UniProtKB/TrEMBL annotation:
GO terms for biological process: phosphorelay signal transduction system; regulation of DNA-templated transcription. InterPro entries: CheY-like_superfamily, NreC/VraR/RcsB-like_REC, Sig_transdc_resp-reg_C-effctor, Sig_transdc_resp-reg_receiver, Tscrpt_reg_LuxR_C, WalR-like. Residues 4-122 form the Response regulatory domain. Pfam families: GerE, Response_reg. Residues 148-213 form the HTH luxR-type domain. This is LuxR family transcriptional regulator. It comes from Intrasporangium oryzae NRRL B-24470.
Length: 218
């Protein structure tokens, strides 16, 4: 089945371009568009797409607030949201991820990375543009912790290894290759980490690793 996507961007040219790019990709279907935050919230709520692609700067509601309302900590059934922007400012990135976004991309990331991020979000993974990942995650070390300092249950040695790689922005496939374990095993470890840390996705796992000083930027 195709991954259903809603595209929200207040610039007509950008939105049209994104719709054309995504519409040409096999396995993706653009089911809705929005030119402002309030419309994005309404369209996404009505259509329940697999992934919402939302610009960070929009009239009405900005992308961070839209993300918070659809995927925030208090949302019972959070939506997969990817935030896109022209600006890779730390406050934007942090705000988006704190609000529950599963991805953060710059608009010049290119079609391949955009499609990869959508597939990752639809599968419960998260993807952040490589050129901002390390700088972004390293800033978590300077933020006040937002999750428990200690996990509910102690992490195993293997979970600590997976945690460190997730914090560096590695995908499940990359972790499997680096640790010489199966992809299903990686997914099991990530699921266990989410349970033990009270995290809803791998972005929050990475945030926890930096918040608790378990990880450092390379």
């Amino acid at each position: 089945m195709s991954i259903r996507v809603v595209v929200a961007d207040d610039q007509d040219l950008v939105r049209t371009g994104l719709v054309m790019i995504l519409g040409a990709q096999p396995g993706l279907e653009v089911v809705g568009e929005a030119a402002d935050g309030l419309t994005a919230l309404d369209v996404a709520t009505r259509l329940r797409p697999d992934v919402l692609l939302v610009d960070i700067r929009m009239p009405g509601l900005d992308g961070i607030e839209v993300t918070r309302r659809l995927a925030g900590p208090d949302v019972t059934d959070p939506m997969a949201v990817i935030v896109i922007t022209t600006f890779d400012l730390d406050e934007y990135v942090l705000g988006a991820l704190r609000a529950g976004a599963r991805g953060f991309l710059l608009k010049d990331a290119g079609p391949a990375l955009l499609v990869q991020a959508i597939h990752a979000a639809a599968n419960g993974d998260a993807l952040i543009a490589p050129n901002v990942t390390r700088r972004l995650l390293s800033t978590f070390a300077d933020q006040a912790p937002v999750m428990p300092v200690q996990p509910v249950d102690p992490l195993t040695e293997r979970e600590e290894e997976v945690l460190a790689l997730v914090a560096r922005g590695r995908t499940n496939a990359e972790i499997a290759t680096e640790l010489f374990i199966g992809l299903s095993t990686v997914k099991s470890h990530v699921a266990s980490l989410m349970t033990k840390l009270g995290a809803r996705n791998r972005v929050e796992i990475a945030m926890w690793a930096y918040d608790t000083r378990r990880a450092r930027a390379d």
